[in-house]
């Protein structure tokens, strides 16, 4: 089936000093050939997500994505009206764009399908708007709706970026109907990541929880953020339940060599460590048995030694990095809720 388009052309013939316009011509366009021509443009691959009116997560694979503006921060995606998830996006007040890395071709296929269990194969977080953010994506943008534009058999969603994050993985590319690789995904001088790494000093009944880094070393478990219900999703691993009343800021410091800095919280595990945590590289060490030689950075070794010392003394502090060695603020007394503190008489 063909569609048609119209072209206007002008003659050089004049009648009474006026330029005469020729008859409009109709030229047939083959949609299949046009799709193939569009497909020669190399793109990345995204999964666009939202929450429908029933509170269910919805998502689909999209490669019609582009940045629009830095001030204000805007982007756009195009959603086909024939898509199964179209009604959810047509009425959404917010959405997230998750750019996939080269190891996520299968996730792209799942979200391009009509499967009812798309989200069972991925881990998601909520950041600002509540739209699902894929935890392991190359980059993500959490957006409120700026505007919605009708455009033929698609709608264009223009989003106002409320939060975003990036990683160092190589992108998943797409061209001529197939996935492609990018040979040089991280040019010299390109920032390795956006934002701060959020890490956790998590106490268990037996000691402190550390994680194998895959290079023979040990690091703190990291997560994108702490969820409101105190369930912590460890990146690339399992979910841990924490005591919310004991989770508190512990350290903020920068790293050398342009690496992102770290925000470190201290917390206590509220349940037994799940069996799958051991296969994910999580290990518990007694406070006198921490293998400091296996800790890859001096900053992290310093955090661990300080924590062990302050735990022994029963008095914690908050450390903030600075050019002259940092500042430490001692915490006197027990932690308490803000509402309780706010109502304390002066």
Folded structure, characterized:
The structure is a single chain. Helix content is 13%, strand content 39%. The longest helix has 16 residues, at 298-313. The chain is mainly beta and 346 residues long. Strand 17 and strand 18 form a beta hairpin. Mean pLDDT is 80; it is low at 1-12. The chain has helices at residues 31-38, 86-90, 105-112, 276-279, 298-313, 338-342, and strands spanning 3-7, 10-15, 18-21, 25-29, 43-44, 46-51, 57-62, 65-70, 73-80, 94-99, 124-125, 133-134, 139-151, 154-166, 173-175, 178-180, 197-203, 208-212, 218-219, 231-233, 239-241, 248-253, 262-268, 282-285, 317-320, 327-330. The strands form seven sheets. Strands 17, 18, 19, 22, 23, 24, 25 and 26 form an eight-stranded mixed β-sheet that branches. A seven-stranded antiparallel β-sheet has the order 7-6-10-13-14-9-8. The radius of gyration is 26 Å and the shape is elongated. The chain starts with a strand and ends with a helix. It contains six helices and 26 strands. It folds into two domains: 43-180, Pnp Oxidase, Chain A (Roll); 197-340, Nucleoside Triphosphate Pyrophosphohydrolase (Alpha-Beta Complex), CATH 3.90.79.10. This is Flavin reductase-like, FMN-binding protein. One of its GO terms (molecular function) is riboflavin reductase (NADPH) activity. Keywords: Oxidoreductase. It holds the Pfam family Flavin_Reduct. Residues 38-181 form the Flavin reductase like domain.
Number of strands: 26
**Biggest sheet descriptor:** 8 strands, mixed
- Overall domain count: 2
CATH class membership of the largest domain: Alpha Beta
Query: So, the CATH homologous superfamily of the largest domain?
Result: Nucleoside Triphosphate Pyrophosphohydrolase
Q: End-to-end span in angstroms?
A: 78 Å
Named at the architecture level, the CATH assignment of the largest domain is: Alpha-Beta Complex
- CATH topology (level 3) name of the largest domain: Nucleoside Triphosphate Pyrophosphohydrolase
Beta-strand percent range: 35-45%
How much helical structure, as a percent, in the residues?
Answer: 10-25%
Give the CA-based shape: elongated
Estimate the mean pLDDT confidence.
80
C-alpha Rg, in Å? 26 Å
InterPro entries: Flavin_Rdtase-like_dom, NADH-dep_flavin_reductase, Split_barrel_FMN-bd
Protein name: Flavin reductase-like, FMN-binding protein
Domain Flavin reductase like: 38-181
Keywords: Oxidoreductase
């Amino acid at each position: 089936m063909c569609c048609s388009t119209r072209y206007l052309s002008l003659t050089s013939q004049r009648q009474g000093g006026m330029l005469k316009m020729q008859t409009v011509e109709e030229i047939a366009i083959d949609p299949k050939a046009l799709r193939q021509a569009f497909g020669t443009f190399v793109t990345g691959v995204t999964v666009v997500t939202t929450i429908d009116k029933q509170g269910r997560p919805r998502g689909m694979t999209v490669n019609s994505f582009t940045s629009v503006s830095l001030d204000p921060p805007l982007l756009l995606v195009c959603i086909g009206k024939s898509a199964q998830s179209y009604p959810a996006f047509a009425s959404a007040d917010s959405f997230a764009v998750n750019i996939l890395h080269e190891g996520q071709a299968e996730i792209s296929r799942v979200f391009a399908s009509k499967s009812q269990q798309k989200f069972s194969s991925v881990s998601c977080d909520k950041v600002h708007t509540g739209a699902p953010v894929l935890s392991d994506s190359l980059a993500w943008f959490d957006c409120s709706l700026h505007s919605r534009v009708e455009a033929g058999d698609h709608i264009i969603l223009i989003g106002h970026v409320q939060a975003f994050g990036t990683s160092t993985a190589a992108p998943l590319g797409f061209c001529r109907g197939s996935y492609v690789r990018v040979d040089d995904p991280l040019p010299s001088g390109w920032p390795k990541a956006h934002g701060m790494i959020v890490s956790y000093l998590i106490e268990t009944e037996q000691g402190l929880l550390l994680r194998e880094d895959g290079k023979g070393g040990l690091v703190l478990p990291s997560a994108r953020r702490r969820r409101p219900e105190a369930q912590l999703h460890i990146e690339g691993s399992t979910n841990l339940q924490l005591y919310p009343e004991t989770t508190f800021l512990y350290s903020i410091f920068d790293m050398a060599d342009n690496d992102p800095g770290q925000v470190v919280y201290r917390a206590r595990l509220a349940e037994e460590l799940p069996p799958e945590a051991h296969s994910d590289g999580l290990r518990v060490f007694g406070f006198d048995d921490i293998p400091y030689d296996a800790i890859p950075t001096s900053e992290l070794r310093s955090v661990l030694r300080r924590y062990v010392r302050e735990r022994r003394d029963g008095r914690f502090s908050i450390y903030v990095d600075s050019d002259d060695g940092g500042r430490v603020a001692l915490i006197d007394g027990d932690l308490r809720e803000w509402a309780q503190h706010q109502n304390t008489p002066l």
